[in-house]
Amino acid sequence: MGAAVDRLVEVVAALREHCLWTAALTHEGLVEYLVEESYELLETIEEHRPDEELRGELADVLLQVVLHARIASERGAFDLEGIARTLTEKMIRRNTHVFAPDGTLRESFPDSIEEIVRSWDAAKRAERPERTDPFAGLPRHLPALVFADKALGRGERWLALENGGGGPEPADTPAAPEGDFGRDRAVFATEEELGEHLLGIVRAARAAGLDAERALRAAVVRHTETGWRAPR
Question: Where is the signal peptide, in residue numbers (predicted)?
């Protein structure tokens, strides 16, 4: 694998030097391609397409990383090796349930996903102890439904850490913000039922001349800015 990656880096470097189109690329200019390639990969995964297609789409996403690394290296900032090193260090630092601080494997490992999530969240929080906002760093440009789900998840896990790891479990009592957000908790047996419900909400919003995407995003922003509590 090392030789293949090294050759890829060489090819991209040659393109940056000899291809006018590739040479003109910038971090900002690559954003649209990263988004497009990511959605193509998502579609390939969700439609269970053949492995050959999956490999090709992953390659397209990898190209974006290599291009960004090359552009950064040209200004002396970092290169692909530096990205890999940063990621390795982060994985060791965050996964304290698997690795000791020196990167060696621990002698035993957790038996539950809940314990792993708590360990990850505690390690992540320890990196920035000055942060008191559970939503710091949460990208507001995420699709509104993803944004809402991520915000709810961060809120509930933050409360669990505040309670010494004994807080509410995600499946039982998700954290809710002050006010009416999350007040009506309809129960859905399947994602199909949930999808129909969401589609109905969007249909009603359209009939009223409202933008459901913008409305949900604004609601999440409001409540992440005004504080959250465990529901009563």
Answer: none
Residue 56: count other Cβ atoms within 10 Å of its Cβ. 14
pTM of the model: 0.71
Q: Is the dihedral of CA 215, 216, 220, 226 positive or negative?
A: positive
Helices vs strands, H then E, count in the chain: 9, 2
Residues in the chain: 232
**CA gap 62, 75 in Å, rounded:** 21
Instruction: Tell me the three state secondary structure of residue 230.
Output: coil
The SS3 call for residue 229 is strand
pLDDT tens string 83-141? 999 999 999 999 999 999 999 999 999 999 989 988 988 898 888 877 777 787 788 77
The answer to whether the CB of 109 falls within 8 A of the CB of 195 is no
Q: Which among 171, 166, 174, 175 has a CA at the least distance from the CA of 118? A: 166
Contacts by 133-138, CB closer than 8 A, 24 or more apart: 134/158, 134/228, 135/224, 138/224
Cβ neighbours of residue 135 under 8 Å, at least 6 residues apart? 151, 154, 155, 224
Residue 95, class by beta-carbon neighbours within 10 Å (0-12 exposed, 13-18 middle, 19+ buried)? middle
